[in-house]
Amino acid sequence: MSFRADRGRAWIGGLLLLYGAASLLHFAHNAEYLADYPNLPAWLGRSEVYVVWLGLAAVGLGGYALYRSGWRLAGLLLIGLYAVSGFDGLLHYTRAPLAAHTVTMNFTIWFEIVAAALLLTAVITIARASRPDR
């Protein structure tokens, strides 16, 4: 196992927490200020936003549990899916331009995206370093 894989394993738990917190911040802001977000569907309600966040967080936690219990590839795949879901925040900008969102909205969106990118980078690094041909 390479130095990069060891380092990635040490960081994945922390990055998972960072992304989980960033995601919760964005989703909570979305839920609490739903009416202020430009052009979101009228049917979308506060409780739906929190339910979606709980479902996504369960994927991340499930992936981490698999990863820690020795099912490394399955765990990394789920954690990777969880991280990729963080890029969905960019969909806000398909509904309205960046300038139509408040500073706080943009901060929570971009904080989640950056945290998701860091987590996904760690997942890819570990997966690549753990390949048998290495």
Would you spell out the secondary-structure blueprint of this structure?
Blueprint (H helix, E strand, L loop, with lengths): L2 H30 L13 H23 L3 H14 L6 H4 L7 H27 L5
Helix content: over 70%
- Rg over CA atoms, rounded to whole Å, is 16 Å
Instruction: Estimate the strand proportion.
Output: under 5%
Q: How many discrete structural domains?
A: 1
* Quaternary assembly: single chain
Total number of β-strand segments?
Answer: 0
Order of helices and strands: HHHHH
Question: What would you call the structural class?
Answer: mainly alpha
Total of helices: 5
Descriptive report:
The protein has helices at 3-32, 46-68, 72-85, 92-95, 103-129. It is built from 5 helices and no strands. Helix 2 (46-68) runs antiparallel to helix 3. It has one domain (3-36, 43-129). It is elongated and about 50 Å long. By secondary structure, the protein is an all-alpha fold.
